[in-house]
Amino acid sequence: MKFVLCNDGVCVPPKCPVVDIRSDKVIIGEKENVCTLTRAQFDILRQKIINGEI
Question: Of 9, 17, 24, 52, which has the most beta carbons under 10 Å away?
């Protein structure tokens, strides 16, 4: 699954961050400014967001 994070309906694709969820990793960012997480790391991040910790 891959989706673009746009703000207020204004999307400039080269500048909007992308979340690319793959079976073994999750890539977050834009162009060369990316963070790659394992699925386990992403699950921890997701749970912290859901719990309101971050």
Answer: 17
Full strand arrangement of the beta sheet holding 25-30: 2-4, 18-21, 25-30, 33-38
pLDDT tens digits, residue range 1-54? Answer: 988 888 776 777 667 889 999 999 999 998 889 999 999 999 999 999 999 999
The letter for the amino acid at 15 is K
Please give the model's pTM, rounded to 2 decimal places. Answer: 0.77
The count of other CB atoms within 10 Å of the CB of residue 26 is 19
* Domain count of the fold of the chain: 1
